[in-house]
């Protein structure tokens, strides 16, 4: 049986701390739209397709919002959530690219080939071009579509860019991690480039502007220049609060009493982002959009605890399949919601936004086959039962296999060495190596090396490869029931087998030296020429060229870049 070490506060008080409510009696930074009590009680009707604002934050932990009892100030998010519907049974993916791909396609990773890791800057890889994206479906429904912020769905050729995948305009970064002021991104020693783009051009002139402010200002400009009589979709993918931990000094000063430097900077970034959302909400009201708008707020994955984030009281962190990695912060705020000011425990997954938002936009889903998402608007707006009963968190055949897993442990139907996780009803199953498994409270004390903040550590059970939890009764994943309920384990393993039969091959090609920013004017951007007759699909070799002369040139280029790559790799080592 697992043994836990408990220090500091009592377990009951700490778990309760994770669900303290924010003081709703304080003045709000977001003004009420309807002041007449009768007006608030009237059920709104859709007279025309609503304006949709989807806000996605990066690496914000489950605990890092006011209404989850955080020590971080988020008054705008708290008020928007309180006046809307809080989603407390909402799931995302454990890392960046998978969450974004599932939002944009409405499909699980296993159905887009992106089930392993993220899309890296030098990989010839992107969101599959045969996928009809959410913004493309909204364009079909008559929407103006705009993206502001972090893309991270590949850019090796122009067809992969946001403006080729359904967005009319784009301002943001293509990679997954840039400086908040200079927009530089280094993908290893000496492999650095600028990454801020306006449409399909490099936005050199915007350098020096803090990205959270820049993106909120761009949203305001879009709203000011558009007519509220025409439907609009704005996807705001904040870089915040991903590393590097950078924030204007005035925000850091608010948290000067926090002893932990990383937590202090992180908190400042969260509060700065909260104020950016306030400015976006204000613009919606100023320019006449608010009364017919739907604001969706979502995190992209769990918080990174080594960088100031907290998922307390959940287990695990970013990059893991424990609840701390995959249970997200989510809420919907809209005058169009029929049952406002409540908490919903309906099961919702990030893939559900695709069919939900297209349906709200009165778009056509009949010609879209194979969606893994469901229309959950009735569950959100009216409190009806969610149509979703299970979630495939993922199956990753390339992730390091668990040392003690085997086909025998999986009843002969599933190799438990493979990293996978699924939830069916109230049950959650994990196989393989789910990732770092501690429970980590908020890092509010002074700095100490290593994992000083671990309140509880798992001290045995390291030879396991199967875990089973009743997530409804045990949301903190403290009681593994895999040995007591082998019948449930077998049933969920059968579901993994079912999903695995539908999976397509993993797309995770080797890095290509042609992507180096030095060959692209010093900036990250598309590097595969349209003249090339090579096709980079997954890890397969490029297709042969029909033009012998062109093939010869490509061979010479390959030889040159192989030698260059060898030098770069030797320098990296």
UniProtKB/TrEMBL annotation:
PROSITE patterns: SULFATASE_1, SULFATASE_2. Residues 519-548 are annotated as: Disordered. The keyword Protein transport does not apply. Residues 50-361 form the Sulfatase N-terminal domain. SUPFAM superfamilies: Alkaline phosphatase-like. InterPro entries: Alkaline_phosphatase_core_sf, ARSB, Sulfatase_CS, Sulfatase_N. Its cofactor is Ca(2+). Keywords: Calcium, Glycoprotein, Hydrolase, Metal-binding. One of its GO terms (molecular function) is sulfuric ester hydrolase activity. It comes from the Eukaryota. Belongs to the sulfatase family. This is ARSI Arylsulfatase. The lineage of its organism: Eukaryota, Metazoa, Chordata, Craniata, Vertebrata.
């Amino acid at each position: 049986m697992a043994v836990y070490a408990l220090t500091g506060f009592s377990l009951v008080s700490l778990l309760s701390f994770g669900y303290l409510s924010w003081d709703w009696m304080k003045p709000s930074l977001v003004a009420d739209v309807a002041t007449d009590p009768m007006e608030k009680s009237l059920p709104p009707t859709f007279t025309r397709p609503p304006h949709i604002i989807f806000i996605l934050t990066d690496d914000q932990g489950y605990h890092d919002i006011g209404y989850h009892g955080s020590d971080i100030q988020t008054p705008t998010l708290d008020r928007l959530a309180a006046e809307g519907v809080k989603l407390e049974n909402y799931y995302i993916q454990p890392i960046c690219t998978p969450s974004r791909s599932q939002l944009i396609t409405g499909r699980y990773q296993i159905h887009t080939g992106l089930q392993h890791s993220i899309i890296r800057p030098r990989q010839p890889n992107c969101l599959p071009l045969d996928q009809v994206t959410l913004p493309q479906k909204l364009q079909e429904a008559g929407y103006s579509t705009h993206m502001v912020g972090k893309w991270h769905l590949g850019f090796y050729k122009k067809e992969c860019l946001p403006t080729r995948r359904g967005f009319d305009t784009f301002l943001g970064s293509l990679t997954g991690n840039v400086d908040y002021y200079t927009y530089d991104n280094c993908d290893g020693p000496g492999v650095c480039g600028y990454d801020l783009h306006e449409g399909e051009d490099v936005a050199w002139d915007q350098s020096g502007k803090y990205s959270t402010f820049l993106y909120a200002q761009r949203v305001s400009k879009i709203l000011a220049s558009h007519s509220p009589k025409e439907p609009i979709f704005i996807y705001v993918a904040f870089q915040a609060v991903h590393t590097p931990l950078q924030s204007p000094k005035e925000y850091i000063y608010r948290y000067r009493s926090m002893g932990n430097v990383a937590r202090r900077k992180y908190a400042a970034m969260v509060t700065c982002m909260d104020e950016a959302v306030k400015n976006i909400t204000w613009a919606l009201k100023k320019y006449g959009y608010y009364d017919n708008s739907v604001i969706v707020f979502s995190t992209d994955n769990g918080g990174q605890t080594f960088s100031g984030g907290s998922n307390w009281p959940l287990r695990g962190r970013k990059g893991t399949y424990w609840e701390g990695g995959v249970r997200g912060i989510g809420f919907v705020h809209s005058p169009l919601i029929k049952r406002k000011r409540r908490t919903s425990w309906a099961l919702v997954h990030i893939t559900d936004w695709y069919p939900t938002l297209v349906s709200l936009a009165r778009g056509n889903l009949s010609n879209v086959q194979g969606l893994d998402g469901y229309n959950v608007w009735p569950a959100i707006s009216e409190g009806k039962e969610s149509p979703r009963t299970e979630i495939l968190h993922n199956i990753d055949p390339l992730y390091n296999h668990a040392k003690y897993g085997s086909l025998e442990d999986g009843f002969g139907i599933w190799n438990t060495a493979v990293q996978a996780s699924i939830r069916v009803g109230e049950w959650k199953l994990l196989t393989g190596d789910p990732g770092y498994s501690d429970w980590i409270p908020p890092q509010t004390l002074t700095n100490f090396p290593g994992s000083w903040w671990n309140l509880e550590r798992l001290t045995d059970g390291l030879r396991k490869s199967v875990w089973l939890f009743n997530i409804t009764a045990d949301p903190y994943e403290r009681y593994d029931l895999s040995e007591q309920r082998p019948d449930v384990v077998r049933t969920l393993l059968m579901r993994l087998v079912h999903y695995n039969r539908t999976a397509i091959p993993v797309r995770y090609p080797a890095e290509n030296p042609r992507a180096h920013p030095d060959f692209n004017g010093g900036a990250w951007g598309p590097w595969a020429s349209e003249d090339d007759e090579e096709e980079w699909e997954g890890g397969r070799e490029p297709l042969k060229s029909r033009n012998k002369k062109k093939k010869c040139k490509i061979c010479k280029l390959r030889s040159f870049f192989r030698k260059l790559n060898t030098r770069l790799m030797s320098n990296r080592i």
